[in-house]
Amino acid sequence: MTVDALAETLGQRIPAQRLVRDSLRRLAYGADASFYRLVPALVVRPENEVELLAVIEECREGGWPMTFRAAGTSLSGQAVTDGVLVQLGRGWRDAEVLDGGARIRLAPGVIGARANQLLAPLGRKIGPDPASINSCMIGGIAANNASGMCCGTAQNSYHTLAGLRVMLLDGSVLDTTDPQSVAEFRESHAALLDGLERLAANARTDVELARRIRHKYRLKNTTGYALNSLVDFRDGIDILAHLMIGSEGTLGCITSITYHSVPEPPCKAAALMFFPDLSSACRATMALRSAPVAAVEMMDRAALRSVERSPGMPARLRDLPPEATALLVDVRGEDANVLDSSIDEVGRALEGITTLDPITFTDCTETYAMYWKVRKGLFPAVGAMRALGTTVVIEDVAFPIERLEEGVAALTAAFHRHGYSDAILFGHALEGNLHFVFPQGFEQPGEIERYQALMDDVARLVAVEFGGSLKAEHGTGRNMAPYVELEWGSDAYELMWQIKALFDPLQLLNPEVMLSRNPTLHLENLKPLPVVHELVDRCIECGFCESVCPSRDLTLTPRQRIVLARERGRLEALTAPDESEQQWLADFSRREADYLIDETCAADGMCSTRCPVDINTGELVLALRQQRHLSKAPLARRIGHHFSGTTRVARTGLRLLSVGRRILGDGAMEGASRWMHRASGDRLPQWSPAMPEAAPIRMLHKVRQEGYRDQVVYFPSCATRVFGADSRDADSRAAMDIVLRLLDKAGYDVVIPEMPGHLCCGMAFSSKGMDNEATHKARELNRELLVASQNGRLPILFDTSPCSLQILDHLDERLEVRDPVAFAHDYLLNRLQLTPLNESVAVHVTCSAHRKGLHDSFIALAQACAREVVEPQGISCCGFAGDKGFRVPELNASALDGLASQVSACAFGVSNSRTCEIGLTQHSGITYHSVLDLLDRVSQAPSSKL
Description:
Elements: H1 3-10, E1 19-20, H2 23-30, E2 42-44, H3 49-62, E3 66-69, E4 84-87, E5 95-98, E6 103-106, H4 112-119, E7 124-125, H5 138-143, E8 161-167, E9 173-175, H6 179-188, H7 190-205, H8 207-216, H9 228-232, H10 236-244, E10 253-260, E11 262-263, E12 267-275, H11 278-287, E13 295-299, H12 301-307, E14 325-333, H13 336-349, H14 365-376, H15 378-385, E15 391-398, H16 404-417, E16 424-428, E17 433-440, H17 447-465, H18 484-488, H19 490-503, H20 558-572, H21 579-589, H22 591-599, H23 606-610, H24 617-628, H25 633-641, H26 643-664, H27 666-679, E18 710-715, H28 718-722, H29 735-745, E19 748-751, H30 763-766, H31 771-788, E20 796-798, H32 801-806, E21 817-818, H33 820-828, E22 833-834, E23 837-843, H34 847-851, H35 855-863, E24 866-870, H36 884-887, H37 889-895, H38 899-903, E25 908-911, H39 914-924, E26 928-930, H40 931-938, E27 939-940
Parallel strand pairs: 2-4, 3-4, 18-19, 18-20, 20-21, 23-24, 23-25, 25-26
Antiparallel strand pairs: 1-2, 5-6, 6-10, 7-11, 8-9, 8-10, 12-14, 13-14, 13-16, 15-17, 16-17, 22-27
């Protein structure tokens, strides 16, 4: 069956918008965190089991290989394919806490950190704790048997599995938590279960094989299938369920998993210990095996050197001797007494082992976080420092803990033998699990051969000489598939092929992953990383950015935009592109490409808050916009020079829309607006019922300056000068009115800059790529703020958070600009008497507030004003992005999908950007106001001033 025929057939069972056939999105969606690249022939986004069944059935009938993917943060090439890529995202995010938190049921599209957020109030968490937990999804965590820093082997998915639901190649579904499903499956799949039980019986009776299996899983091990299921269980259902863990989608698709949760002790402390060399650190690790520690993380000197100059790192790192090695030791307890007792035991265990500094534990939150920042910054540091055009290889091996010291020495010698002197070594030492990271280019002659020689050497050393595991927690993938037989031996390897045949006789489920007869598979389909733009060249395509991107379910994520930018740059650099490459270039020239890459990007910078190398992909998009809009510079200049007139026109337009709304009604008005928006090629903004009234700008001329009170400069943003109250909400008020009332109650006289209607921070221009005029307006505002603040003597309040962030790069160093959250939290709370509302209030922290580190202040401010504060999960940026909520309303709708159900019990919501509040009101079912409105509602002037 051709891919066109497959797509046509699937189109009868799945909506066409979830069948991705265009070349650009197939390339973008096909990228994962590994250093391999395959472009899927078709990308399908099923949203339920009915649609997933359709995909499996049609692919099986048509002979199409399929790969199931959640977040694509996997590192070993297990989530790429040139067949059918099945993405489990929207529609697969259900989560349910069970038995008071003892268990939790999760769909594969749930982000790992979300599961822990649900369990945290109950003092529990899921066992697996991979470093990517804020981005990776449960489907990948289970399918790779991911573990992490405190997880060990006892708390991984295999050992905390309470049950799962899986769909097999024949379309059948087994839910091991449902007795009826189990009974029906036993009857319908007796042959499969008998086959598994027979393989298990043979494995148990083969004394040498059983011994080898038990030895392998004494360590962290994700190489090959979970053969421990054959010796741990006798019942076919149990064997099947545990074989699914770590199977990387090669046996079936997990559609739900139920975990036994584990305790999350409330008291934590850590010590960053420095040892003279690797050997002494290894001996210390052995001594800590019997101590009550949660984690022991080893970092060699090269690893420490990679982060020693990074912001926020301990100064001591720069003074360490050349061979020094660090251990980050984490201790946890139910209370302070347990914690202190554990710390004492650690001290006794390490008596007699030389350290460079006295061992000191800290439970200070800031210092504790700094220590872990050292450890978590290692992989990103290599990514940031690597030569452009190279990738970052991260491998993870496990040695038997009793041979850790000699294993580390042998591994280090192998790096130097093959010319990888820049490799860094770190890892979960308590488990004998070490990661080694190094930059690797594949373009230069001899580099592939050098990499192959290293991997052959490492495989022999770890798997054969030391009896360790080649993949401790990152999964086998394509990268280690050629070495599975070397590690396990031919008998165990053939056993794995028999398991594969029982589940997938047609070899359609993620073929060439886990098991492969191709000895050079790990050297093929290597990902090109051409140098295209200084803003994104350091990207390692890890995917950590994706979970906070507002367009992730609509078009592209930051990682995917960078993938397309790199491919375009590679193609444009070709001197003689072939026919297919010319077609790719033509695809980039179409309007669809601009829609994907540019128009649906909010350029909010949230991606930088999760990026391990601090990349703001929005800056790349803004640079592209600037190139595209060069011809509009004169228009931007005219608008900027007549900005007060522009805002007057906007307010007049709002008044006319209000008249039209009263005449036509919301339904007809919205329908007519939608038609006009589409007919104009999306150029005309689209009206929504959440559109506010025009702002009463006359308020700014009523400000009194009495001269005996404290003063503050107030700059009303252009958004609040244009958009007033919500006409549907009797309690809604214009932001300027709120600010002036609040400042008066707090005892401030207000100073308004001259020409307030003409001033702008520049965001209205920079967001459209008109940087010259944006800079002009920002400098213009800076001059007026200097005058109004008496050269910085007075604090300056902005009433929207995005504007306060925008102006930062242009501020005179004497100016102190505060956004509404920071000002209210730091200046107003202690000046007002509060009577908190006995209501539940929803909070949306804007992307700009997140980027300025104001999240906690925002929540604290809201909690001071209301009985209950609800912060919806999975909602980062609202996607309104200035005026995109009017011009690309689908971005706002997609970003806020799921918001209404989370805030339905709230009286209203608060945010700190007027335009964001419009979109939030539109898609939540409640009205959103400024957070200053909330503070004004619950506050009064101190009694001494009444």
